[in-house]
Amino acid sequence: MLNRLSRACPLPWLFVGLGNPGNKYIGTRHNQVGFEMIDAFAQSQRIPMNTVNCKAIFGQGLIGEVPVLLAKPQTYMNLSGESSGPLAAYYKLPLNRVVVFHDDMDLPCGVLRLQDKGGHGSHNGLKSVIYHFRGNREFARLRIGIGRPPGQMDPKAFLLQKFNATAHQRIDAALQEGVGGLKLLISEGLTESARCFNKEQKYKYLKLQTVPT
Question: Which of the residues are catalytic?
Answer without folding.
Answer: 30
